[in-house]
Design goal:
The longest helix is centred in the N-terminal third of the chain and has 23 residues, at 22-44. It contains twelve helices and no strands. Helices cover 76% and strands 0% of the residues. It has helices spanning 3-11, 22-44, 47-52, 58-65, 68-89, 97-114, 116-127, 131-134, 137-159, 169-185, 187-194, 201-219. The protein has two domains: 15-66, Homeodomain-like (Arc Repressor Mutant, subunit A, Orthogonal Bundle), CATH 1.10.10.60; 72-221, Orthogonal Bundle (Tetracycline Repressor, domain 2), CATH 1.10.357. It is mainly α. The chain is globular.
Length: 221
């Protein structure tokens, strides 16, 4: 039984068509597409499979997104919008500089640990040399705003004598991201090489504390 038929049987209603809820259909396509791209990468993903798992058609997917690469780019944009939205909600500008950096480092570590699909898609995009990121003005704008947020907190810390001067905001971002990203991207290889599960609760807590400590030592005057 198809997913759409199953939904109808349980609820007694037909799934909403694209004319009834176009935004809902679009969100459904993006959700299923993300799962397909995470599992199979851009090259291995199949639009036919995505269409079969949604309440729409291959033709409608192309109507919304143009082609498979357009759909993949839209998934990337949604994922970057999500993490940057959560970062904005931290309201770092309202916090003292050290507290702001501590919160950001801890949040970034937790977000990556709880959203391994984000890490997998970034890895997929690196295989394709970042060309879809490069073609998205939306993602470029989102990521620049993240650097501006770090720069503001860092400069306040320098002015207060809490952080040493001369560090680029981008380098701070790269350090935070690297410490969070590696803990997810390399779990399988570290488990095989060292027999260590980086996803275990006690290991996560230890690495999280180390990530925050590393950043603060980097910034310390």
């Amino acid at each position: 039984m198809s997913k759409a038929a199953s939904t109808q049987k349980v609820t007694g209603r037909k799934p909403a068509s694209w004319t009834q809820d176009p935004e809902g259909v679009r969100r459904n396509i993006l959700t299923v597409a993300k799962e397909e791209f995470v599992e199979n990468g851009l090259s291995g993903a199949r639009v036919d499979e995505i269409a079969a798992r949604t309440a729409t058609s291959k033709r409608m997917i192309y109507y919304y997104f143009g082609d498979k690469e357009g759909l993949y780019r839209a998934v990337l944009e949604e994922m970057y919008e999500r993490i940057r939205g959560f970062e904005r909600s931290l309201d770092l500008a309202s916090l003292p500089p050290v507290e702001a950096m501590t919160l950001l480092a801890g949040f970034t570590f937790d977000y990556h640990a709880e959203n391994p699909d984000f890490v997998r898609l970034v890895m997929v995009e690196n295989i394709h040399h970042g060309r879809h990121l490069a073609s998205s003005d939306r993602i470029a704008s989102l990521n620049l705003s993240a650097i501006d947020m770090i720069r503001e907190a860092y400069e306040r810390g320098v002015a207060a004598g809490l952080f040493r001067p001369g560090i680029e905001a981008l380098d701070i971002h790269l350090t935070i991201s690297a410490l969070a990203f590696y803990n997810v991207s390399n779990r399988a290889s570290i488990r095989q090489v060292f027999g260590h599960d980086m996803g275990a609760p006690e290991a996560l807590a230890r690495r999280r504390a180390a990530a925050i400590d590393t950043l603060l030592r980097m910034l310390h005057p």
